[in-house]
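Hi V.,

You were right to ask for the full record rather than a summary. Here it is.
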Amino acid sequence: MKQLSETWFAEGYIDFELKKYTLLAYLKQINQYFDENKLYPQLSDLIFHYNNIVAFRENKKYLQEQFPKKLTGLQIEKLQVLYEQMIEDSELMQELEDIIHYSADKMKTTISNGAEIYEFVEENLTITPIGLLPLDVQEGYFFLSAGNSKTTRVYQYRLSIFEKHNENFRSMKTAYIEMMQRSMVYTYENIKYELIRSRNDLPNPAVYSIETELSFPVEETLLPIAKRSLVKFISLPQA
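Predicted structure:
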């Protein structure tokens, strides 16, 4: 997929029609993926660009605070200089404002399309602890099963906490282990036992099953949403 640069709306020739067609070409690609129920990394990329232009409109010095890891110092300086120049050119400033207003509306609509798919998938996931959970659930395994198949994808996970804008967030790193086949006699509990027996790094792991009847793309949709849903599930106080 052809990517937009982080500062696409303020690069080169500032012309509404030119930027409009650049944006529409990008959104057409995004929607093609959404039509195939493929959300990632397209949805997160689109949300980044939406936040980018909204923040620029609301606070022209947003860059250094909002996206220190995404944008380089040269890009930050470039946009700040550009804004200072445009203050003295009302016609050019209006052109940029029109570009940003149009782009924000179009991006918001496309984000809503992706969010509908996300929410539909999330609502159709069932997360269940397998056996007794240890006191420490920051690391363990989860089993992802989709559709009517008895095929189960086994992943190891590790939760971590990172700080952003003075707030703490949880993220999950995962590693694919293997594909296993369940049956009436080889259940999730058997898979858990086999993992404990064959892998010495986690002698008493937290283990969860994540099931859905949907047959959506795994890497682009089911797995990313399953990970986020599991983070929320683990973060909630358990009865």
